[in-house]
Amino acid sequence: MLIIKAAQLPEDIQTLGIDGVNQIWRDAKLRAVGKARAKTLIEAAVSARMEIRMLLEDYESRNTRLQEVMVLIEELVRKIPMAEKRLEIKGVGIRTV
User: Which of 12, 25, 40, 44 is deepest in the core (most CB within 10 A)?
Assistant: First the structure.
């Protein structure tokens, strides 16, 4: 929790470095922590940064596919007889026709 208060983002943890993380722990007089644990935390921050980037790419990809599907749905709805009349009903949209 001390590290999160000092460095909220993975980049901040990387900036602190092993010695900075270790110093925060030593200032708080925590036992059973050392450079090995600090190194593990730094490696986890690097991995978290990569995972966030991958999740954002996945989100963008899925969002693009959703937009393509919605365009297709709109085209198909326009082919349905009386679709325009149904769309005029309050609360009825492209997805519910």
Answer: 25
Predicted TM-score (pTM) of the model is 0.53
Residue 97 within a domain: no
Is residue 93 in a domain? no
For residue range 3-33, what is the model confidence (pLDDT) as tens digits? 778 877 778 788 888 888 878 877 877 776 7
| DSSP track, the chain | -HHHHH--SHHHHHHHHHHHHHHHHHHTT-SS--HHHHHHHHHHHHHHHHHHHHHHHHHHHHHHHHHHHHHHHHHHHHHSTTHHHHHTSTT--TTT-
Do 44 and 9 meet the contact criterion of CB atoms below 8 Å apart?
no
**What burial class does residue 21 get, using C-beta atoms within 10 Å of its C-beta: 0-12 exposed, 13-18 middle, 19+ buried?**
buried
Domain membership of residue 65 (yes or no) is: yes
Alpha-carbon gap, residue 97 to 94, rounded angstroms = 6
Look up residue 58 and give its amino acid: D
